[in-house]
Write a structure and sequence with these properties.
It is built from eleven helices and seven strands. The chain has 289 residues and is of the alpha/beta class. β4, α7 and β5 form a beta-alpha-beta unit.
Length: 289
């Protein structure tokens, strides 16, 4: 079609364009004002200190992804980490206070929480000694301690491993009792796995939460860890949080139905453990029956 030309009495285009610019500017100004009126999302800085229980399916990264996609009124977790295979609290402590060590990292930044995790076969006396040392050091530097009690390995993982459910109760009871005595918050993930399974789980149901070695958590077991820690740190229900993680391993996808059951178990454990304050953990957990 031929190009249309304006009639001679048609006003020049510039004023119309200027009017449009003014309209756009007003719209942008209103949008900016509206955005400015929305309070910034609160941020919580968390340092995680542990071993391969946190590493196999990248628990810190999983929590970061869940937090980033959470509702705007939930705190956003900024997570640092010091993780190495086979580490006990004593071995973490014995690294000293140099740059990049667990204690060095605690002292170098202002953290809201420091999550510490003991190995599955820890000596009870050694655990109590070094958990107390870490808690004192963490408090000294203005943060709060969250003791992360993991699930235990299966009897197939190594010689001398205790059988379920005694193995879970021993590992989590030890840490819960410490928390109750010292006033340290505890996130008992072993209890949460037990809650998710219900009474008398089959071997197949139990192994479904483990990696192939049946000692470390698999994707599903790690997701339960993440849900419990999310609730424990933020005081928010993990229901509805994302359950697919493109950048962990070759991609992790947990079905919505399974994720909902895991989220429910984690929230029930958290709310059972704590008074109904809606705040992050302030007391240690209650043992299951």
């Amino acid at each position: 079609f031929p190009e249309k030309t304006p009639a001679k009495d048609t006003p020049p285009a510039k004023p119309a364009a200027d009017a449009q610019k003014r309209t756009d500017a007003n719209t942008e100004s209103k949008s900016s004002a509206a955005q400015a009126a929305v309070p910034a999302r609160p941020t919580m800085k968390v340092l995680m200190i542990g071993n391969s229980q946190m590493m196999v399916y990248d628990l810190p990264q999983m929590m970061s992804v869940m937090s980033a996609a959470a509702p705007a009124d939930h705190p956003k977790l900024e997570i640092g980490r010091y993780t190495a295979g086979g580490m006990t609290l004593k071995r973490h402590w014995d690294l000293g206070e140099g740059k990049g060590t667990p204690r060095g990292m605690i002292a170098a930044e202002k953290w809201d929480y420091v999550v510490i995790q003991e190995i599955f076969n820890a000596d009870p006396a050694e655990f109590a000694q070094y958990a107390a040392k870490f808690d004192e050091f963490i408090r000294k530097h203005g943060a709060k301690t969250l003791l992360f009690a993991t699930a235990n390995v299966t009897e197939h993982y190594g010689k001398g491993a205790a059988k379920y459910p005694d193995s879970f109760k021993q590992l989590n009871d030890m840490q819960v009792e410490f928390g109750q005595k010292k006033g340290v918050a505890v996130a008992p993930a072993g209890y949460t796995w037990m809650k998710y399974w219900g009474d008398s789980p089959t071997d197949a149901q139990r192994y479904d939460l483990y990696a192939k070695d049946r000692g470390h958590p698999g994707a599903k077991g790690t997701y339960i860890y993440a849900c419990l820690l999310y609730a424990s740190l933020t005081g928010q229900n993990p229901a509805g949080l994302v359950s697919d993680f493109d950048h962990i391993k070759d991609g992790v996808v947990i079905s919505k139905q399974e994720a909902a059951a895991m989220q429910k178990a984690a929230w029930e454990q958290y709310t059972m453990d704590e008074e109904s304050t809606g705040k992050p953990l302030v007391k240690s957990a209650t043992k299951p029956g």
